[in-house]
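**User:**
My hope is that you can spare some time for a protein that puzzles me. This is the protein in question:
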Amino acid sequence: MQEPRSPRRHTSLLWVALALLQGGCHSTEAAGPTPVSPREVTPDMVTGVAAAALGAGGLFIMPLPASVLGQIPLDTAREQTLQFAKYVTNNLLLRGVVESGRGGYWTDPHRLVLCSHDVHFIRPQIAHPDIDSLPDQGRELLLRKFGPQWLLALCGEKGEPQMTVQVALEGNAVRFLGGLPIEPDPFLLSAFSPHGVPLDWPDALPVSAERAVRFAYDQLGARITEIPELFVRGDSDAGAAYDLQPGAARNCNRWRIALDRDVAVQRAVGAAVRMSNVVYVASYSCRGTDVAPLLQLPVEAHPTEVSVRYVDYGVSPPRTYSVRVSVASPIKFDVVHPASQ
């Protein structure tokens, strides 16, 4: 499966915001996407830890890490997300990012409140990119971009998610007060990034944990044994350089689903059959309106290392750094289907 890739970008605030606008501006229809699979999980679909975490209404009580390295503990992320929402309200470009994600519908971010049930810990795909050979600003930027993230949802008065804020846990000293950054940061959107949730969509994410579990169970008939894990979704190109869109965790992610037995899957009828007790569920693309879940597996010849690049525009001529890092979780995937009998 070929993941969507983004062009090389300057890392200025304006350039990144424009990229987010381009990535989120897919729909101006009068309504949001229509759910294509059920959302609720029933007790017969889960066992073990997953069953213990299933709460009322068929929704998971998602655990959060007991302790996480980094500068942004969850309480700080929550408080700063509300401050950042005030900043988005008063920033025409960022407010446009949110409203384009909602299909062009108006929203007033500073009037939103934290949703009661939508906090996600996003796991990274590559190992810790704190590389001594990079300049300080480069290390900080790569830590923000490729490291673990919080993803928090903000809801309207009816409890409907309207906006998400992605908060980098590491390399993130950005703070807001009174709706403004305390200190200017040219790479602010690598620390706090907004996205809009399509109108009338019931979840903060295109594919929720419950929809991913329900889809895997319906497709494969195997019960789910563990609480789904959410990973940010990037890709490596033909030159093994890894990248992901800044702030793309709301639209560009993938659920890891553990099963109670091996299942047989294949890319297409007649293709080789693969056996696995772990599958991944995600939409095909990173478009915010692509909400149809698909079964995926890591490619068999999977890379163990990738390159990450940083361009230092503070020197003339600009200098490009390329460093090798280990892969911490799968990056390249095939779409698969239950094997034909």
Remarks:
- The chain has one domain: 13-338.
- The two ends are 24 Å apart (CA to CA).
